[in-house]
Amino acid sequence: MLNQNLKKEMLKSIDITKQTAKNNLEITLESYTEIMSRLDIMTYLLIQDEKK
Predict the structure, then answer these.
(1) DSSP per residue over 17-33, as a string?
(2) pLDDT tens-digit profile of 26-42?
(3) 42 FRET partner, CA 20 to 30 A, in 11, 14, 25, 52?
């Protein structure tokens, strides 16, 4: 059976890993949103230019 200190360290490591994964996902989603926004603006400008 694992001793208590090792269990605590493992639980702490698991929590840190979960937080890291969550932070990475949030950064990825923010980047995706920013890229899609810029592409939408570029698309709009190209379509508006064609209408002139």
Answers:
(1) HHHHHHHHHHHHHHHHH
(2) 999 999 999 999 999 99
(3) 25
